[in-house]
Design brief:
Largest sheet: 11 strands, mixed
Shape: globular
Number of helices: 7
Strand content: 25-35%
Radius of gyration: 19 Å
CATH architecture: Alpha-Beta Complex
Number of domains: 1
Structural class: alpha/beta
Mean pLDDT: 89
Low-confidence stretches: 12-18
CATH superfamily: Spore Coat Polysaccharide Biosynthesis Protein SpsA, Chain A
Oligomer: single chain
Helix content: 25-40%
CATH class: Alpha Beta
Distance between the termini: 38 Å
Number of strands: 13
């Protein structure tokens, strides 16, 4: 059974200022998602599942179904604020979804095979998908998951701070600890993150998670109770988020699962801020010139986009 690509596309992109998941970056209206799916198909993935807000479903289908029909199986699941499926009867007010690990749980009844999780607005590169496909096809088990590890100096924005899952890797190449650093940025030709009002330096070769993870469906069972506990503990904290990095760190420390860190030298690029968009467009143009992608990704003359 071929692995599945699970795309996290339910966030509202507060810093970017618009719905960047369906913003266009390629010369023929291609989104970053288009390039991710193209690479995943090339690597061997058999299905793509979109995690979205239910109110965006028709827009997503109108954009992606004409491009993907006959190329890869598609499905859609919805991240919502309903906590009843987790055995929580009280209503907890939220302005934004509960975070990436909660989003993954939205797919628990849909995905039955090993799968890869990605962000909709991150450009990872073919090397990462090929390495993840090989892992999911040959190595993944209910006690061995994985993540693609990027060098932190190849993942930052020039236009402000970003969040990164900063990793510690043991001698066997497995993740020993991961910490979500929510304010990481360049400073004086170095890299720092903020913690308790202090700036802490980071080695530019530090491996970080860019939310490209490999799992089996066992992750749903492992994280269900964890989310219930998290939601109840953070009922009065509307900005709290149930990150995949949090789940991973708990599983590692409890010795319930190991995470293989698969290194890549690819340069990540994405659109945290509006000012990042021209950089992404130039990077894609360069890759097209180098022959990594065709000029018209799907061969569609007039792809559907949102105004």
């Amino acid at each position: 059974m071929k692995p599945t690509l699970l795309i996290l596309a339910a966030g509202m992109a507060s810093r970017y200022g618009s719905m960047k998941q369906i913003d266009t970056f390629g010369p023929n209206g291609e989104t970053i998602i288009d390039y991710s799916i193209y690479d995943a198909i090339k690597a061997g993935f058999g299905k793509v599942v979109f995690i979205i807000r239910e109110e965006f479903a028709e827009n997503f289908k109108a954009i992606f179904e004409p491009k993907l029909k006959g190329k890869i199986e598609t499905d859609y699941v919805f991240q919502s604020f309903d906590l009843n499926p987790f055995g929580i009867n009280q209503k907890i007010e939220r302005a934004k979804p509960w975070g990436t690990a909660h989003a993954v749980l939205a797919a628990k009844d849909t995905i039955k095979e090993p799968f890869c999780v990605i962000n909709a607005d991150d450009f990872y590169g073919f090397d990462s998908y090929k390495k993840m496909y090989d892992f999911l096809s040959k190595e993944a088990s209910d006690t061995l998951f994985s993540m693609i590890g990027y060098q932190i100096d190849k993942t930052l924005s020039e236009y402000g701070s970003v969040s990164r899952g900063v990793c510690m890797v043991d001698p066997n190449g497995n993740l020993s600890e991961i910490n979500e650093r929510t304010k990481v940025y360049f400073k004086n030709k170095g890299i720092v993150y903020e913690e308790h009002g202090q700036e802490v330096s980071l080695d530019p070769h530090t491996r970080v998670s860019m939310n490209l993870w490999g799992f089996t469906p066992k992750i749903f069972e492992l994280s269900m109770t964890m989310f219930k506990d998290f939601a109840l503990a953070n009922a009065s904290n509307p900005k709290s988020e149930f990150f995949i990095t949090l789940v991973s760190d708990v599983l590692i420390k409890a010795k319930l699962a190991s995470f293989k860190v698969i290194p890549t030298q690819n340069k990540w690029f994405g659109v945290t801020y509006k000012e990042d968009k021209p950089i992404v467009q130039r990077s894609i143009d360069q890759l097209i010139q180098e022959g990594a992608y065709p000029n018209n990704l799907w061969g569609i003359k007039h792809p559907i986009t949102l105004s």
